[in-house]
Design goal:
The protein is of the alpha/beta class. About 40% of the residues lie in helices and about 15% in strands. It has a single domain, classed as NAD(P)-binding Rossmann-like Domain (Rossmann fold), CATH 3.40.50.720. This is SDR family oxidoreductase.
Length: about 260
């Protein structure tokens, strides 16, 4: 293999949910630098437009801003339709949209909060994977990447609905890999703590103590997700599917 060629995404189109900030933004920019045209999807259209303009300016690639609420089951076929109308193809789907609202205690978790967490983190990824995966299977194939969390394997009481949703995301990754192979590869990145905008809400003193146990002794920078995403999106992972790839500073290697 020649790495420069095989990591290239020239001629590919990628749709990234939650693509306007955090890890999603870095994946969008990384894919565009690798040659892909990109669809940036999130609930905030203005934020998507800003990243789309940044993509065009920095990489010269085509970029579509798409207002999309992944928790709205019936609207998701429209996201695929708009992508195909604009680009005529879709080769890579990244299910990155997610949220983990704070709550005072487990008994204070409302049904509305629980349902919202499941809708965005799990149900939307299931629906998009089903419709996009079927399109890829019936066409030229493709790659689906789910952005999961180490909370799926190392849950804590302060994020339990989120952890449950991400555990479900890991499971459907394996199921969709079976359903849509061999033409569609489906994998997940199980992300550890990253210094995105969400980290502003952390108790940094407590976080620093926790990170001392990690083999790498630190949280990740958002751009450090790109290598894993590019690997799973590109031909370099042509024999990789149904895999949960931990990018977590070593968190899952410890108890």
């Amino acid at each position: 293999m020649t790495p420069q060629r095989d990591f290239s995404l020239e001629g590919k189109v990628a749709l990234v949910t939650g693509g306007s900030r955090g890890l999603g933004r870095e994946i969008v920019l990384g894919f565009a630098h690798a040659g892909a045209d990109v669809v940036i999807a999130s609930r905030n259209l203005d934020s998507c437009e800003k990243i789309a303009a940044e993509v065009r300016e920095r990489t010269g690639r085509r970029a579509l801003a798409l207002q999309c609420h992944v928790g709205d089951w019936d609207s998701l076929p429209g996201a695929l339709a708009k992508t195909l109308d604009e680009f005529g193809r879709l080769d890579i789907l990244v299910n990155n949209a997610g949220l983990s609202p704070l709550y005072d205690s487990l008994e204070s978790v409302t049904e509305a909060l629980f349902d919202k967490v499941i809708d965005v983190n799990l149900k939307g990824a299931f629906r998009l994977s089903a419709i996009v995966g079927a399109h890829m299977r019936d066409g030229d194939g493709g790659s689906i990447i789910n952005v999961s969390s180490v909370a799926a394997e190392r849950p804590t009481p302060v994020e339990l609905p989120y952890a449950a949703a991400k555990a479900g995301l890991n499971i459907i990754t394996k199921g969709f890999a079976q359903a849509y192979g061999p033409k569609v590869r489906v994998n997940a990145i199980m992300a550890g703590p990253f210094l995105t905008d969400v980290s502003r809400h952390w108790n940094m003193e407590k976080a620093a103590k926790n990170l001392e146990r990690y083999p790498l002794r630190r949280a990740g920078s958002p751009e450090e997700i790109v290598g894993a995403a590019l690997f799973l999106a590109s031909p370099m992972s042509s024999y990789t599917t149904g895999t949960i790839l931990a990018v977590d500073g070593g968190r899952t290697s410890i108890g």
